[in-house]
What does this fold into?
Amino acid sequence: MKRAVIAMLVLGSIGTAWAHPGHATGSFVDGLLHPFSGIDHLLATLAVGFVCGRQRIAGAVALAAGLLAGAALALGGVALAAELLALLSVAALIVACAAAGRLGVPVLLAAAVVLSVPHGYLHALESGGAAWIVGLALGTSMLYAVGVSAARVIASRARAAAPR
It folds into this structure.
């Protein structure tokens, strides 16, 4: 049930992916705060934290690595159909969340890296600087930690409420 709810929330955020501010300043602080300014970042990052919760640090590193790799591609002048890939990555995230129990954590972590590359690419083109991108990666890692914490609290409460 929780996977279906996550999938519906992420799916509902597709139309808002480019509809929030905070891209063009180049400031580290604006990059850090950016993931908290749009429902697309909030839902996608919390969802990854929720399903990869057992791998606390690895998931944050995976997301940040994908964002930074995408940014490096953009800043290096590599041509990429990033808008299409970003849209497809949201759909793939929905599938990954729904199938999280069957995929296993290593596959989910690899998916987090691959799926965040086009987002890092697009943000690098819009952001105006490396400091903003580093802030984005750190802010995304912070949101991931919130998703991990939420998953742990829910799991703990579910165990406590389960009949013995």
Observations:
- The chain has eight helices and no strands.
- The radius of gyration is 16 Å.
